[in-house]
Amino acid sequence: MLGKIFDRFVEKSPISVMVRGTLERVLGADQLDAWFARTAQKQYTRTVLFSTVYTILSHVVFRIKPSVRAAYRDHEDRVGASRISVYNKLNGVETHTSAALVRYSAAEFMPLITQLDGARAPWLPGYRGKMRAGNGLAARERRLAVLRAVQAGALPRKALVVSEPTSGLVRDGWPCAEGPAQARSLLGPVLETGHAGDLWLQDRHVCPCALLGGIDSRGAGCLTRQQAGLPFEVIPTRRPGGRIETGQVAAHRGQVWEA
User: Fold this and answer.
1) Where are the domains of the chain?
2) How many helices (DSSP H) and strands (DSSP E) are in the chain?
3) Which residues does 96 contact at the CB level (< 8 Å), separation at least 6?
4) What pLDDT is stored for residue 56 in this prediction?
5) Helix 29-39 vs helix 95-115: angle between axes, to the nearest 10 degrees?
6) Fewer beta carbons below 10 Å: N end or C end of the chain?
7) Which residue, among 38, 146, 46, 155, has the nearest Cα to 97 in the 3D structure?
């Protein structure tokens, strides 16, 4: 049905055909537009489709094009609307929609990974590894030329994301529209996604004492760097942990107090 050219790709490069087909099944234009209609809370479709904005922005994210303007010019004949309309659509995307798109794609891809036995072995048997990290561009990156010399320039948005090493998927994301906000302000919703058997891997900047207590109360564990202000006491008894490339490793227990 698809012709001899497609048959050649199937024969010579079946993996690329499978990957393309998988992406089209989950993130194709029809699927994205239908998903957007079900998910968006305030934004609606008038002339610019959500799938169009997704395609344009993906070309910027993957560095195929250097900017939204350049990506729009490359797709102008298929957009069917002005560049201003595209910018308005992009600016109106709700943080709720962005977060839901992360969860939607992970939920769709996970059964495929399971079916193909593509998950990696867990880092620690008996635990479900999760990596939590905050992300945000520095204030000087990708700024308008007229603002590059202004010290009080507007800060970009931040996001807190959770990835799963065994599947290689980003499972959750919490974007924040407030530039000055800290990643810690997003930890409440993150903690609600925790379950018994989770092993949270995180940086010291996102491990306040209340969060560690919440993780423990859910029957989960965490692996984190110690924060300077953490109320922490070392129990002196050491236990040998083996040898690594740089020398011997020892471990000791500690106590953390939570209000």
Assistant:
1) 1-93
2) 9, 7
3) 39, 40, 41
4) 92
5) 130
6) N
7) 38
Cα–Cα distance measured from residue 229 to residue 239, given in angstroms and rounded to the nearest whole number: 25
The alpha helices in 193-253, defined as continuous H runs, are: 209-217
Calpha distance 39→77 (Å, rounded): 28
Query: Helix, strand, coil shares of the chain as percentages rounded to 5?
Result: 45, 20, 35
pLDDT confidence tier of residue 50, bands split at 50, 70 and 90:
very high
Say if residues 200 and 130 touch (Cβ distance below 8 Å).
Answer: yes
Helix (H) or strand (E) holding 90: helix 83-91
Residue 251: partners with Cβ closer than 8 Å, 6 or more residues away: 238, 239, 241
Q: What is the DSSP letter of 100?
A: H
